[in-house]
Amino acid sequence: MTATDHAQIIMAAHDRVAKLEVTEDGLVQIPGIEKAVPRQVAVSKSIRELVAELSEGSASWKLIDRLTGNAEGVELKRFVGTIVKVTKEKSSTRGKLLLYTGTKQDVKDGKNPDGTERVLPAGYEVVRTERTDDPEGFMVASESKALVGHRVLLWIILEPWTNNPNKKTRVLQHLMDLGEDSRYDAETQTIDA
Asked: Residue 101 to residues 68, 95, 153: CA-CA distances in angstroms?
């Protein structure tokens, strides 16, 4: 780390502490800490949190690597689609998004009750969120539900299955709202293409 990095972390820590409640005697009340502490102790705690978050291998670091396509063994795809429907996949608790992308490929989506392959109608694809029993997965699934009928830019990783590395699940990492899709029919949950 350079002196500039140190200065930026210290300034960020002071900014965080400035937003916290201060007692009459000038001590800082840190959420989750029973007793108020001197300002420098609060700044030190904030510095520890920032350095941990900025360290290679932290959850934030790994997320940045996934979203930029730099995570080892993970393939990143970005594409645009309209969210048609969001359901909860019973077997995994993942959010399951039905998207209209206009694809010309046949897209398989599991099996029919008789055991045959289920193929989506032309133009549709499916992606899944992380598990919704995880707060990150729940947040992305909730955000997706709020954007049904909207065109979105999606960041998807292709996650290899643990029991079969040749198969991959398309897992939604992030989405950006591009506005309502006028072709979306809420009543039938379809796109008038």
From this structure: 22, 18, 11
